[in-house]
Amino acid sequence: MLTRLLLVFSCFYFLVAFSSCNNKGCTDSNALNFDIDSKKDNGSCNYPSLRLHLHPTVGSETFAFDQTFNINGVDLKFDVAQFYLTAFNLEGESASDNYELEDTYLLVKGDQHMYDLGEGRVGQIKNLGLKLGVLEVDNHKDPASFGAGHPLGPQTPSMNWSWANGYKFIRLEGTADTDGDGTYETDFIYHLGGDNSLTDITINAIDLAVDSEMEEIPLKVDFAKFFQNIDIATENVSHGDPVLSSKMTANYSSVISKM
Amino acid sequence: MLCFSCSMDNPDFVMETYDHKIPAGFPAMSIPADNQLTAERVELGRTLFYDKQLSRDSSVSCATCHLVNKGMADNNIKSIGIDNLVGIRNVPTLSNIGYHPYLFREGGNPTLEAQVFGPIDSPEEMGFTVREAVDRLKTQQYYDNMAEITYGRDFDEYVLSRAIASFERILISGDAPYDEWTRGDESAMTASAKRGMVLFFDTLNCDGCHTGFDFTAYEVVNNGSHVTYDDPGKMNLTMNSQDRGKFKVLTLRNVEVTGPYMHDGSFATLSDVIDNYSAGGSGHPNQDSRITPFSINTQEKSDLIEFLHALTDPIFLSNPEFE
Fold first, then answer.
1. What is the number of other CB atoms lying within 10 angstroms of the CB of residue B248?
2. How many whole angstroms separate alpha carbon B84 and alpha carbon B225?
């Protein structure tokens, strides 16, 4: 009798012990392979890739370099069109679904559409908050201190003002036909930045694209919006000019919108 | 260079500490912990300083504008860069640049290392980008080897900026006749220069701004040089109209050979500068209150200029370590 009890107890013990060992898996509900039955995380969690899919435009037209666009009645062509985005804050269905992407910067360029934002989380993203520019805590760092390929590292063309110890939040350059004679005689150069011009942008009701391993946020970028209330014929050069900077900064929040 | 090549195979290789000669009476120079001076770093920095490959068409180096016999400045009104493009400002001297707490004339850059990128990226100076300059140099054996020796990494922007900053930190000027006089050599300065020295320090209080061992406290002020300022100066940084026309006070060391003067090179001679100050400056609303009119006669003006000439350091102007 005692032997049988011992046998039953042993079987029960080993059953429980081995059951516990086998209940290891991904315990993070934000992961693709979340195992609701797992009691102990085994470091196997996989997360969806998060991407920003930008659709660069100039008004209703698709953006392209060296193509003529008409902005505020002026024909112009872009040679350089780029700006920084950061401080991505993703809002889900509930507060517990919200998360931020730390230390993430994108250098948005007119001819680039896809941007990797790293690992996301499973779940619906409702709203997206972000900032156009560079955070003050990073804006005065030495570009050489960032690793190769980092958006805040040295770029071509350069996005850093050594003389002002800060980054150009936007860099727009090209040529314009300001007198309407068919020749692009006027250079436009907008290098704008400064801690005070860091701008919050909020995109609500995002149409998230999801597949088995990826989440993609589609957004529209309208470069024409930078030029609202700007007279390109007379206000065509700024290397941080305070008046022109202020006018253009006021347009930042409308540059990016939902598709 | 052969020794440096051998060093790469020698696990016991240790860089040679650079003998940083600080003149008597000068303070110790603050040097970042990650960029302490070594002979190898100075050597690399000197090579880069003179390398015209840092410009787009390989025609301009740092040394193109910063000439040793011109007090590490030049005599152009404004800088002349790639394609003979005229820059926006007069070339400042690099005399004692390692002591500056911030760089560029409006004082917007906090480190000598980060400042390196400015001229390379400037369309009117080197007309290049740091990224492209690095891509050009990193494939060259000498730079590849030296980057490993000096900073233990591949040649990149970090190596470029740190090395040039290291070279710039040896550009110390402290052996002018004035300095010799302060060290006890009564014959080092002429009688005229001594009279000028009294005017400078006592009568006219020029040392209100041009003070200390380097004849500047590195303040960023409006010195009343212009009635209007096309170049906003510090206002570029602050967007504050009260900072229009404010520029960093430069050293007067080697000022005899670094003309023309002011941020835009608009004053051709030291006599012109003294005339502006004696008139009490331009009266610009942002003019520093220390700029007040004064009256000196012809002899006194000559003596004052003679004293400024006594700040010319013949050793600095011909130092083979700077070549």
1. 22
2. 27
**How many residues can be counted in chain A?**
259
Q: Is residue A21 helix, strand or coil?
A: helix
Highest mean pLDDT among A3-12, A118-127, B180-189: B180-189
Specify the residue for token string 């109209």. Answer: B241
* ipTM value: 0.74
Nearest-angstrom CA–CA distance, B112 and B97:
8
- Sort strands A74-91 and A127-132 into parallel, antiparallel or unpaired: antiparallel
Question: Any idea where the domains of chain B sit in the sequence?
Answer: 2-172, 177-318
Beta bridge partners of B128: none
- Dihedral angle sign, alpha carbons of residues A99, A104, A109, A112: negative
pTM of the full predicted structure?
A: 0.85
Q: Are A164 and B160 inside 8 Å of each other by CB?
A: no
Give every CB contact of residue A52 below 8 A, 6+ residues apart in sequence: A106, A114, A115, A117, A216, A217, A219
Q: Which residue in this structure is represented by tokens 């003067």? A: B261
Q: How far apart are CA A63 and CA A74, in angstroms?
A: 16
| CATH for the B2-172 domain, from 2.60.200.30, 1.10.760.10, 3.40.710.10, 3.40.50.970 | 1.10.760.10
CA dist A182 and A180 (Å) reads: 6
Q: Is A142 on the interface with B (CB under 8 A)?
A: yes
Dist. CA B7–CA B14, nearest whole Å? 8
What is the distance between the alpha carbons of residues A154 and A136, in angstroms, rounded to a whole number? 18
Condensed to tens digits (0 to 9), the pLDDT of residues B279-319 reads 999 999 999 999 999 999 999 999 999 999 999 999 999 99
Instruction: Please give the Cα distance from B71 to A160 (Å, whole number).
Output: 29
* Inter-chain residue contact A158 with B157, CB threshold 8 Å: no
φ and ψ at residue B249, rounded to 5 degrees: -70, 120
Token duo for residue B120 = 């390379």
The CA distance from B134 to B146, in Å, is 14
Confidence of residue A20 (pLDDT cuts 50, 70, 90): very low
Contact between A223 and A171 under an 8 Å Cβ cutoff? The reply is no
Closest CA in chain B for residue A149 = B131
Hey, what are B77's tokens? 């009104």
Regarding the domain with residue range B177-318, which homologous superfamily does it belong to in the CATH classification? Cytochrome c-like domain (1.10.760.10)
Angle, CA of A191, A197 and A198, to the nearest 5°: 110
Q: To the nearest whole angstrom, how far is the Cα of B288 from the nearest Cα of chain A?
A: 23
Nearest to B131 among A142, A145, A156 (CB): A156
CB-count burial class (<10 Å; 0-12, 13-18, 19+) for B17: exposed
Using a CB-CB cut-off of 8 Å, the residues of chain A touching B158 are: 144-145
